[in-house]
């Protein structure tokens, strides 16, 4: 076990182990863990590299996991435990997570009392525990961690307590591993953006590029990473695209998962075709004219690029899309910030309200499970009332014609 030093300064503790961004020569980036001398913590780095390179996880996923591993290693150092075998004390680790600020927080650790506000909520603690479980399970696979640690991380459970849709088709008894340490998170429902909110944001856009961005979020239902990662070659907006080697009929976009220079990343592992309507095509045409007036034939192959501030012609980022939604929400006087995720929920709900079936919503959102689209559906009150009123009255069924 590598020994990372702990430096105590006044009432705060500074630990020489932290998450660190690595840029590889190929342009690929991932997060790892380094000590105070910027030496890579080998066990953590092997796990995070495998997460990024072999399992195809996003860069931000490795960042979240690296930060979770840092907290676990810091706790092991402060309590004098070996990180390889400290899994049997994860209950104490959870208590520590709830009340102890992280490295570099600049806060003194005090004894929590009645009415104290936890440092981390249940959701954040569960995310840290997921990173720790993955880290230790990876160590067991490499035989760097004792095999009995898995018994401390997981308990065996039967498939019988799973929903019917999640069980296998076989009648044989099956078991699954269930995490031992997990807090019950309060369910937080993501609201949809209303049509009125989307229209108000659209009208406050100052450029054709911003209008196209709003439509790609709210009418096509793409995630910010997918919007920022679109290339011009992905956009086939003719009725017949066979001239460019595409047999898909009608206007559509090809959503492709690739490593982009602006770090835009599609969460969906597979590529898929997304149909678009005439509103998106018109917005695209207006943006093409605007882009040509600003850049001429310059810029790169990315669809959405910087037109109004340097570096001109460079692709926009996912952070810029979030900032755009926040700015438009304020300019439109909506009273709340409409996020890109709320726009995606709006698209899915509108498809369902227009008569779309669940399998259609699933395909349009590019989701694997048939249950995945359900949180995205927010039926309009009018549709719910109509569903109730369609149920025949028992009185009608019991009346005898004279």
Could you give a short account of the major beta sheet? 3 strands, antiparallel
Mean pLDDT: 86
| End-to-end separation | 91 Å
Structural class: alpha+beta
Q: What count of helical segments does DSSP give?
A: 14
Unreliable stretches covering 5 or more consecutive residues: 1-14
Question: In which order are the strands of the major sheet placed?
Answer: 7-8-9
- How many beta-strand runs? 9
Rg calc: 26 Å
Given the C-alpha coordinates, what overall shape results? globular
The secondary-structure element order is EEEEHHHHHEEHHHEEEHHHHHH
> How would you classify the quaternary structure?
single chain
- What proportion strand? 5-15%
Residue share in helix: 40-55%
Polypeptide structure, described:
The protein is 40% helix and 10% strand. With 402 residues, the protein is an alpha+beta fold. A hairpin with a 5-residue loop joins strand 3 and strand 4. The longest helix has 21 residues, at 59-79. The chain is globular.
SSE layout:
Elements: E1 6-9, E2 12-15, E3 17-23, E4 29-35, H1 42-54, H2 59-79, H3 90-99, H4 122-141, H5 149-153, E5 154-158, E6 175-179, H6 195-203, H7 208-218, H8 224-228, E7 235-236, E8 252-255, E9 272-275, H9 278-295, H10 318-331, H11 340-353, H12 358-365, H13 381-389, H14 394-398
Antiparallel strand pairs: 1-2, 3-4, 5-6, 7-8, 8-9
């Amino acid at each position: 076990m590598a020994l990372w030093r702990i430096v105590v300064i006044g009432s705060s503790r500074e630990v020489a182990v932290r998450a660190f961004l690595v840029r590889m020569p190929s342009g690929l980036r991932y997060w790892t863990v380094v000590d105070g001398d910027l030496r890579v913590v080998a066990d953590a780095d092997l796990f995070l590299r495998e997460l990024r390179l072999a399992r195809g996880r996003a860069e931000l996923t490795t960042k979240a996991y690296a930060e979770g591993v840092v907290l676990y290693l810091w706790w092991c150092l402060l309590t004098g435990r070996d990180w390889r075998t400290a899994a049997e004390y994860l209950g104490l680790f959870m208590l520590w997570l709830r009340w102890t600020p992280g490295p570099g927080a600049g806060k003194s650790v005090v004894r929590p009392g009645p009415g104290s506000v936890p440092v981390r909520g249940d959701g954040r603690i569960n995310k840290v525990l997921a990173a720790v479980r993955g880290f230790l399970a990876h160590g067991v696979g490499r035989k760097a961690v004792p095999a009995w640690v898995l018994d401390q991380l997981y308990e065996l459970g039967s498939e019988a307590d799973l929903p019917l849709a999640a069980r296998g088709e076989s009648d044989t008894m099956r078991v699954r591993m269930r995490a031992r340490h997990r807090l019950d998170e309060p369910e937080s429902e993501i609201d949809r953006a209303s049509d009125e909110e989307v229209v108000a944001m659209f009208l406050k856009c100052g450029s054709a590029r911003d209008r196209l961005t709003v439509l790609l979020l709210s009418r096509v239902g793409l995630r910010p990473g997918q919007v920022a990662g679109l290339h011009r070659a992905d956009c086939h907006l003719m009725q017949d695209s066979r001239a460019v080697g595409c047999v898909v009929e009608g206007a559509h976009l090809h959503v492709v998962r690739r490593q982009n220079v602006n770090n835009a990343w599609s969460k969906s592992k597979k590529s898929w075709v997304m149909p678009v309507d005439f509103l998106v095509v018109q917005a695209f045409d207006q943006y093409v004219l605007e882009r040509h007036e600003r850049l001429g034939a310059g810029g790169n192959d990315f669809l959405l690029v910087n037109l109004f501030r340097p570096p001109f012609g460079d692709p926009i980022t996912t952070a810029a899309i979030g900032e755009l939604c926040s700015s438009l929400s304020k300019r439109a006087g909506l009273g709340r910030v409409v996020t890109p995720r709320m726009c995606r929920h709006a698209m899915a709900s509108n498809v369902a309200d227009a008569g779309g079936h669940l399998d259609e919503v699933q395909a349009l959102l590019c989701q694997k499970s048939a249950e995945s689209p359900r949180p995205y559906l927010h039926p309009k009150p009018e549709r719910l009332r109509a569903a109730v009123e369609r149920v025949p009255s028992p009185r009608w069924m019991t009346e005898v014609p004279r």
